[in-house]
Amino acid sequence: MKLLNLTINGRKHTKAVSPSMTLLDFLREELNLTGTKNGCDKGACGCCSVMIDDKPMLSCLLPALEAEGAAITTIEGIAKGNALHPVQEAMIEMGAIQCGFCTPAMVINGVHMLAKNNNPDDDEVKECISATVCRCTGYNSIEKALHLAASKMRRAAHDGS
Amino acid sequence: MTAPKKDFDFARPKTIEQLYNLVQECQHEGRQFIFSAGGTDIMPNLKSEILSPDIVISLTGLRALNNIEKQGDHIIIGALTSLSELCSNNNIQKYLPALARAAHKVASPQIRNRATIGGNIMVENRCSYINQSPINRESHSPCFKIGGDVCHLVKSAKRGDDILCQARFVSDTAPLLLLQNSTVNIIGPAGSKEIKLADLYLNDGIESKSLMHGEIITHIKVEITENSLSHYEKLTIRNALDFPSLGVAALRRGNGDISVALTGLNTRPGVFHAKLENHETSDDMIVDICRKANDFTVTYQQDFFPRGYRKNMISVFIRRAINKILEGAKS
Amino acid sequence: MTDHKMTDLTKGYPAKDYKVIGKPVPLIDSRAKVTGQALYTDDIRLHNPLIIKILRAPCPSANILSVDISAALALSGVKGVLTGADFKNNFGVLSISKDEPAIARDMVRYMGEPVAAVAAENAEIAAHALRLIKVDYEITEGVFNSKEALKPTDHPLHPELNKKNNLHKEILQEFGDLDQGFSDADVVIKKRFRFASINHGFTEPHATQVQIDNKGNITVYSATQVPHYLHMALAEVLEIPEHNIRVIKPHLGGGFGGKSDPFPHEMIAAKFALDLGRNVKIKFDREEVFFSHHGRHQTDLTMKLGYSRKKGITAIDLDTLIDGGAYGSFGIVTTYYNGVLLQGPYKLPNFRFHVQRLYTNKPMCGAMRGHGGVNPRFASEVLLDMACAELDIDPAESRLNMIHKENTLTTNEFRVTSVGLHNGLTEAIKRTKWKEKHGKLPFGTGIGVACGFFISGSALPIHWNKLPASTVRMTIDYDGGVTVYSGAADIGQGSDTMLAQMAAEVLGQPLENIKIISADTRTTPVDLGSYSSRVTFMAGNASRNAAIRMRRILIEAACDLLEMIPPEYDRPDAPDNFFRQGGRKPDFEQGFLGANPDYADGFIIEDGLIRSEKHNASVTYLDAVTKALEFGGILQTSGTYRAPKLGGKFKGAGAGLSPSYSFTAFIVEVTVDPETGFIKVDKATCAHDCGFPLNPLAVRGQIEGCIHMGLGQALMEEMIYDSGATQNPSFLDYKIPSAFEQPEVDIVPAYSDDSEGPFGAKEAGEGILAPVIPAIANAVYDAIGIRLTQLPMRPDRVLSALAKEREKNQEAGT
Fold first, then answer.
1. What distance in Å separates residue B108's CA from the closest CA in chain C?
2. Quick one: pLDDT at residue C570?
């Protein structure tokens, strides 16, 4: 066991972990943050996406110890209290959620994309979700949701300025 | 879970000195170690028990190796630069746009945020019999790559052959780097050296890289070719996630000469040059390159696409890459 | 940028003053899912569970000579090891083919089959213990394809069937006069088609957790589409009473048919919990999901189709081999569906099908979205397109002319009630500018059409009994909140939302006032499960009926408060008012068809009031609830659904019977690169007749999802086997299309109003899938003039077909 220090959703954690434990297992099994999903465990479904230092990465492909000192955001850290992020609101509104197993990953990737660029084109939106498998929606409604979230965020930015 | 995975230790040295102290320690204690850059290829292989080291030594703590610099007519890329940083770097976009394109074609956005250029040029060769679930591997007798006595792709292969293992070379970024006469800086327990990138690659799928155990790549030095244009085309069934069924990087120099580098079609990358002065027309030159590329290709059935199709696609993709360049030259 | 405008799918219906249904409603569990709070099976935290791992056979065909578990058992931290000897009873979702052991006993029938299982204190110990189990296999010769499996053998996969071959099920049915049919045709075409097996690819791998109490009762949390069937199978395999078992389906990460069987790991987990008195947990790797499979059958079929200018399709003769893999699963149903689902959407007067399902040494196949109907649909729609091309008839027009009329019987006596395909296809033709495009686009671009047909639930239950197919219990609490209890399994398709919509609409409540408790065998009445597209029709009707009864009680209570005579008794021949006498006449006999939705006409429940329009008087909803609660202290109703008596009198007449059928039309536009053979689907226009769309947002989601899945089967998905070994058990190697491959989708209304569906609704989850694939193939023909007869339509197959076509043309030219 080795000691791991990291920040998750704004909260500092120090915990002893097995060196071969992945970040995904650490989040799910040690911290009970089960919103991050394990769909394939080999980096091919995208369901385990989390943000590490503001970049989406696959937590199944990372020993937890790799995240030493990092700031991690999981799906549990996206909404602020009861206030959903525009991406979350738009996902609900557009019917982009069916079984919901990929939804946390879609949100994580969408939030990251829109933080960098709140006016993405179709290809950028597709790119953002291209490596997260959704077997229910055919992606159309997720793309629409991300465009809708983008327009909400543009409006908010405009109103705010 | 079918794959009983072996526990491994993990370390993330922060300096080269720490790294080699650790390596020495491991060697002294007889502990098997592997290096991991981004780990996006290592981790699936660990989970599938293709690799089973005692310790994984992560290189991500070596922050000094994560940078991109222009030095004269070279771009120096730190080996631990992530592929997404590479894609978005101004110097890369300006001087090596085809490299940015090739890097962008690797896997997925989440993986590119993690995977490094050093890891990508070192990516382990792949074979459908090796990159498999443990049960599948167990169902066949062990092949050469895992210490056995058979190749399931080339049944006639036997020890003593020049090439024992046909596992495919699959790096997306290496072809373009090869065309740009890149060199790699290597350090190891015995000190540092600089070799041509081309010399990194060996013929056999088992030991497909010339890097000695314990050595790491620190930098890649890429030549900026004056007045050149380049492009990368990749064959996959999906526009995301997949390793290249074939990949073509093409470079046109200011004098009209064309070079092409291939990935996914042999145990190593292939590089072919044609000089415009040796051909009557540029089309002849392309035909010549396609012929060379075809001769080089060894497509054993170990991919989504059947071998015949992949062979047929070589010239199609070479032409596409070159045409894209020529379009760029016009505009 | 993508066009965000969406067609109003309820357009064209007579104005209905619905408050909740017909409106786009996000699924009611969306918020829990979008915040990561929704708990799926593996997310549940039981106290200190043992971790189970399964040892799987590394060979597809073998005799198990011995299994030595002593070393594993001796390992510290290992609490139990199970082998085939620990399970006496086999199981299977169909009562007529219970052929699957929880753990292989004497024989291994597919690579990846469980041969032992370990329960240990943690995953590492369990994994270590697996390596200590010594299995002595005697490798036997396997059977790996249907043709081989047809041959007589002394060593069949299932010796217990006492057959000298590997034929699992054979069906031959003939209707009408085939010879006459073909002689009536202007053109007769016969072709062979081949289809790879494909996997559901749901994102949540199988998982089960079992909680045990100190009396030996177990609660099984499992990722299942069929809690009721799982409940039954567990009782049978474990040999304990059903009341000692409670099955709960938590949130479920996709099913598509792949979680509609009881599974070995569920039996293993429950057995460990009972034997060891400990909570247990198991979760699959993705590769285990592929090894377990249960996907769409690999199919090799030959179809002959006759077509007449005047009469449309005159006859179809179908001969099919479907490769079932090692066990039965839903296979007998699949076998029937391969034939009978061709009975729509067009009139088919003369028809024969011969389907054989074979056992082979591969992972078993079972139900998958569009169950059994998908592959033959591809063949018939492609052959129809060929016939039209040969006769130079517009293939879309020709289809319009053959569609079943409403309220007719098919040749095999399916009762077709509502049909919205004609208007849907007409609209799709208009919207896509079909007539300006078909046959007129430049080489490399094309447009194609295909139609489909599917059941809205199987009318006959799997286990024959007279119980309702679905029952819903409904309660109203003191504060007026409504709770719907249903056994229906929400697998992500949104059935909980649908159940809530039913209650909200009938009871005049906002959707937020309706709470759903579902898929828990202890607290919810039986629903047979989420398969065969039955839930909206059956559980929906049950929920609506429960709500109608509840509404009646509330209105009687309102009448009591208003000192009015309830409408039911406000007539000369009315019986005594049971309500006033402090009791109610039980109303359980009244089936759904008799329940009058307009009961108590003249009363309206809305905005928290119950109003009598006739008497211009009102009471509050809450007062009525309180009044109604005075009698028994609880306010509760039940509603049921049972299918009407349907079908012919011949053997096998029950297969494919449904109280109603859905219809679908697709027009697909493609670009084909003749140099690489890549097919890009640019746009898919869908008209799906799901009756009245209860939730247009959910219907849209089902359509887009079916397009995705159809596209996958059409272009890239395939289970690859090498002598029985699954070659691509990963999401890297099993190619599921990404967002880049998904086309633009346009949805046009195809309205019908089903007389028996809840508020006129029918299925929207499965029937949509089948026509996607032939529409793509027909568009490819329009684009580059080739007919593809093998799925997936990989680029290399496109190029081979193109080369052959060019050769043929050259020969014809010389």
1. 11
2. 58
Between C408 and A160, name the one with better pLDDT: C408
pLDDT at A161: 63
What lies within 8 Å, CB to CB, of C37 at 6+ separation is A35, A76
For B224-292, strand residue ranges (E) read 229-235, 246-252, 258-263, 270-274
CB B178 within 8 A of CB B269: yes
Alpha-carbon span A127 to B34, nearest angstrom: 32
CB contact under 8 A, C203 and A41: no
CB C178 within 8 A of CB C254: no
Ordered structural domains, chain C, with CATH: 41-140+200-292 (3.90.1170.50), 298-460+650-813 (3.30.365.10), 470-641 (3.30.365.10)
Which chain B residues touch A57 with a CB distance below 8 Å? 110-111, 113-114
In this predicted model, what pLDDT tens digit does every residue of C400-423 receive, in sequence order? Answer: 999 999 999 999 999 999 999 999
Domain A2-77 grouped into CATH 3.10.20.30: yes
Q: Is A60 on the interface with C (CB under 8 A)?
A: no
Amino acid at C291: F
Q: Which residue has the tokens 């109608």?
A: C548
Q: How far is CA C206 from its chain centroid?
A: 17
Q: Are residues B7 and B68 in the same domain?
A: no
Q: How far is CA B107 from CA A39, B40, C77, in A?
A: 17, 10, 40
CA-wise closest residue to C566 among C585, C581, C552: C552
Tell me the C-alpha to C-alpha distance, in Å, between residue C66 and each of A126, B138, C74, C118, C784: 53, 19, 18, 17, 58
Q: Do B56 and A63 touch (CB under 8 A)?
A: yes
Q: Which residue of C lies nearest to A45 if distances are taken between CA atoms?
A: C731
Tell me which chain B residue has its CA closest to the CA of residue C124.
B4
Q: What integer best gives the mean pLDDT of chain B?
A: 93
> What is the chain A residue with the closest CA to C489?
A99
The predicted structure's pLDDT at residue B327 = 84
> Model ipTM?
0.98
- Residues C586, C371: Cα–Cα separation, whole Å: 40
Give the closest-approach CA distance of B288 to chain A in angstroms.
Answer: 36
Residue B44 to residue A62, Cβ atoms within 8 A: no
Q: Is the pLDDT of residue B326 over 90?
A: no
Structural domain of B32: 1-61
Q: Report the residue from B5, B39, B48 with minimal CB separation from A61.
A: B39
Q: Please list the ranges in chain C whose pLDDT falls under 70.
A: 1-7, 11-16, 566-601, 814
- Give B138's pLDDT tier (boundaries 50, 70, 90): confident
Give dist(CA A107, CA A90) in Å, integer. Answer: 10
Q: Is B10 in contact with A19 (Cβ distance < 8 A)?
A: yes
Beta-carbon separation of C725 and B306 below 8 A? no
Whether A64 and A22 have beta carbons less than 8 Å apart is answered as yes
Query: Cβ contacts (< 8 Å) between C795 and chain B: which residues?
Result: 237, 305, 309
Fold of A86-160: DNA polymerase; domain 1 (1.10.150)
Q: Is B320 on the interface with A (CB under 8 A)?
A: no
Report the pLDDT value the prediction gives residue A77, as an integer from 0 to 100: 98
A36 shares contact with chain C (CB less than 8 Å): yes
| Interchain proximity B4–C127, CB inside 8 Å | yes
Using the beta-carbon criterion (under 8 Å), do A66 and B12 form an inter-chain contact? yes
Distance CA B212, CA C210 (A): 50
> Do B45 and B81 have their domain in common?
no
Span B160-185, pLDDT tens digits: 888 999 999 999 999 999 999 999 99
| Residue closest to C383 by CA, chosen among C108, C787, C671 | C787
* Residue A32 in contact with partner chain C when CB distance is under 8 A: yes
